[in-house]
Amino acid sequence: MAAWPEWRTATITTDRDTSRVASVGNDGRRHRGPSPGQRLALALQRALPQRALGALAGRIADSRWPPLRRALIRAFVRRYGVDLSEAAEPDPEAYPCFNAFFTRALRPGARPLADGEATAVSPVDGTLAEIGPVRAGLTLGVKGRGYSLAALLGDTGAARAFAGGAYANLYLAPRDYHRVHMPLAGTLRAARHLPGSLLSVAPAIAAQMPDLPARNERLALRFDTAWGPMAVVMVGALLVGGIETVWGGRLGHTRRPRELAVPAGLTLARGAELGRFRMGSTVVVLWAHPPAWAPGLAPGTRVRMGQALGGMPGSGAQAAP
User: Fold this and answer.
1) 150, 155, 245, 106: CA torsion to nearest 10
2) Where are the domains of the chain?
3) Which one, 138, 236, 270, 320, has least CB within 10 Å?
4) Residue 31 bears catalytic tag
5) DSSP letters of 130-182?
6) Distance between CA 277 and CA 294 in Å, rounded?
7) Which residues, in sequence order, are bridge partners of residue 237?
């Protein structure tokens, strides 16, 4: 099995913005923290009516009024340099609303899966914000600045299944492909919609709140796989108009934990779409048994959906870079 990546400060580059992620490394030294401007941005976000803004953003993004739709899509493509050559529909004028554009499908073959059913693949296009073991006490994150796995999943019993396991936290920038896919083939066993804040998950904000994935509203999905339990947690963010699953459609916001109905025997293939974000966000994947990580993975690494993250233990799979 590959050695765990060392925890260290990572520079995550988002579109036209580079932010230093504060952390405490294995050397025990404290790395540079957020700037006064970044602290102010967090304070302002906390003061905003986050749910009302999310609802408003959702209505605007769903608008089919041609002048608004065209203006939003054109401005977004210009601002973030979106590559529409990868899209199933490359013509920005063909999308009926901004949300249809934002959650656009990719053309066939744009994201080939790494070889081998025992190879866990990235569920999204994004940047690795964290990668490593589930620590003693069922915590995730940098040692000394971690957060509770039970809080993330909203279920202490479910969290225990991942003791000694591993996880990866992937941040989706605005320009990224925003559909979420299965890292391994699995059967859906539980879906829990958890309330929380709707703060931005951008690196400058996440650096100040290591437990942000367990604070924001989120959908925790648990699967059985041939290599044990796996969880995929879709974390909402500022202006996220909703989280959607392929079996249940769009979820509204929630103010209390909700167990969602799970279709009996729903099994999804490795690489199959399981849901999408209507704006946002972050995905956290958990495995009960640590993969043998593919070479070169560390905080700050860009990954694409279908790229190998690691080979599952006991399978003999050797994940390619």
Assistant:
1) 20
2) 119-311
3) 320
4) no
5) EEEEPBTTTEESSTTS-EEHHHHHT-HHHHHTTTT-EEEEEEPPTTS--EEE-
6) 27
7) none
CB neighbour list of residue 28: distance below 8 Å, 6 or more residues apart: none
Q: How many degrees, rounded to 5, is the angle at CA 303 between CA 290 and CA 31?
A: 80
Catalytic residue among 23, 122, 178, 181: 181
Res 207: pLDDT: 63
210/46 Cα distance (integer angstroms): 16
For the chain, residues with pLDDT lower than 50 are 1-31, 320-321
Catalytic option among 19, 23, 200, 281: 281
Tokens 């974390």, located at residue: 235
> How far is residue 14 from each of residues 37, 55, 81, 88, 220, measured CA to CA in Å?
17, 25, 12, 24, 25
The reported pLDDT for the residue numbered 252 is 78
What is the C-alpha to C-alpha distance for residues 228 and 111, in angstroms, rounded to an integer? 26
Which amino acid, residue 137? Answer: G
CB 24 within 8 A of CB 198: no
Q: Report pLDDT for 273.
A: 98
Beta carbons of 128 and 301 less than 8 angstroms apart: yes
Phi, psi values for residue 159, rounded to 5°? -65, -35
Helix (H) or strand (E) holding 215: helix 212-215
Which of these is catalytic: 19, 122, 125, 155? Answer: 125
pLDDT at 71: 96
Burial of residue 52, with CB atoms counted within 10 A of its CB: 0-12 exposed, 13-18 middle, 19 or more buried: exposed
How far is the C-alpha of 221 from the C-alpha of 233, rounded, in Å? 6
Both tokens of 163, joined, read 């003791």
Instruction: Name the strand (E) or helix (H) holding 73.
Output: helix 66-80
pTM: 0.83
* CA-based end-to-end distance of the chain: 14
